[in-house]
């Protein structure tokens, strides 16, 4: 029996070693994993694997959602107070994000514009936030410019999220063929629920009934394996999908 336990510890360490190599971790993790199979695996799981996993990201998202439900303006109040007390670039970025999350799109757009003229003007995350704010404020062409600027500088930056946001902006700006091409590419490259849902929403909104129905069937098939937590995390996108299909059905 001790040999079975030892073999299991080594197998777990080997799995984490494969993850370490594939994710580009420092080579000292391999030494830790194989020198201390049980303890090393526990340390690697807590320090590296869990923070990078979907489980951890989902848990953080759920906690943020619960806090927001209990006190919707908490983050905005804190961000505004910190910026008023210490008007640094970092606090300005935090305020911009909080304003966007709170739905104050025009004010968020102004805050992001100020950030893009500061010391972090070249920060892709800030420009991505500015793109989101511009779309929420009804300025899709501005969103397109921001996203194409990011892509030109770093094609790998948040590739899927950027592609889907760009497709929405192109659609809102009336560039239907470009939006379709962006969505088709996203589905082929990533094959995710988000990509298919955005493509289905676009198809329903543009009246492409055949494409919308086909994509909706694929989405329904994948959702059969979901649990309640997954449905909760994807609730905003599911709501948009439902509204788009309701409008498609109403149009006949």
Explain what the structure shows.
The chain has 252 residues and is mainly α. Among the domains are: 8-52, no CATH class; 192-252, no CATH class. The chain is built from 15 helices and no strands. The protein has helices at 2-22, 28-35, 37-52, 54-70, 74-85, 89-102, 105-115, 124-136, 140-153, 159-172, 176-190, 193-206, 209-223, 228-233, 235-250. It is globular and about 65 Å long. The termini are far apart. InterPro entries: TPR-like_helical_dom_sf (IPR011990), UCP030959_TPR_rpt-cont (IPR014562). This is Tetratricopeptide repeat protein. Keywords: Membrane, Transmembrane, Transmembrane helix. The chain crosses the membrane at residues 30-50.
Classify the beta-strand content into a percent band. Answer: under 5%
How many individual β-strands? Answer: 0
User: Oligomeric state of the chains?
Assistant: single chain
Rg result: 22 Å
What is the string of helix and strand elements? HHHHHHHHHHHHHHH
Distance between the termini: 67 Å
Largest sheet: none
Backbone shape: globular
Mean pLDDT equals: 86
Percentage of residues assigned to helices: over 70%
Unreliable sequence segments: 1-6
The number of helical segments is 15
What structural class do the secondary elements suggest? mainly alpha
Organism: Pseudaquabacterium terrae
Keywords: Membrane, Transmembrane, Transmembrane helix
InterPro entries: TPR-like_helical_dom_sf, UCP030959_TPR_rpt-cont
Transmembrane segments: 30-50
Salient structural properties:
mainly alpha, about 250 residues, globular
């Amino acid at each position: 029996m001790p040999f079975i336990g030892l073999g299991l510890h080594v197998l777990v360490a080997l799995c984490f070693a494969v993850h370490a190599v594939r994710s580009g971790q420092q080579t000292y993790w391999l030494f830790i994993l194989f020198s201390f199979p049980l303890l090393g695996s526990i340390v690697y799981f807590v320090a590296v694997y869990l923070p990078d996993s979907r489980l951890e990201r989902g848990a953080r998202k759920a906690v943020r959602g619960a806090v927001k439900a209990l006190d919707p303006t908490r983050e905005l109040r804190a961000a505004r107070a910190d910026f008023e007390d210490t008007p640094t670039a970092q606090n300005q970025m935090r305020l911009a994000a909080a304003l966007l999350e709170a739905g104050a799109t025009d004010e968020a757009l102004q805050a992001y514009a100020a950030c893009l003229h500061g010391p972090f003007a070249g920060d892709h995350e800030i420009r991505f936030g500015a793109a989101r704010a511009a779309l929420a404020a009804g300025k899709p062409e501005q969103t397109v410019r921001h996203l194409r600027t990011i892509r030109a500088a770093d094609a790998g930056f948040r590739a899927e999220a950027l592609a889907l946001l760009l497709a929405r902006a192109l659609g809102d700006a009336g560039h239907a063929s470009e939006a379709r091409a962006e969505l088709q590419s996203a589905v082929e490259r990533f094959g995710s629920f988000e990509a298919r849902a955005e493509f289905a929403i676009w198809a329903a909104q543009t009246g492409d009934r055949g494409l919308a129905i086909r994509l909706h069937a694929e989405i329904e098939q994948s959702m059969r394996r979901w649990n309640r937590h997954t449905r909760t995390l994807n609730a905003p996108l599911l709501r948009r999908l439902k509204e788009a299909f309701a409008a498609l059905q109403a149009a006949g």
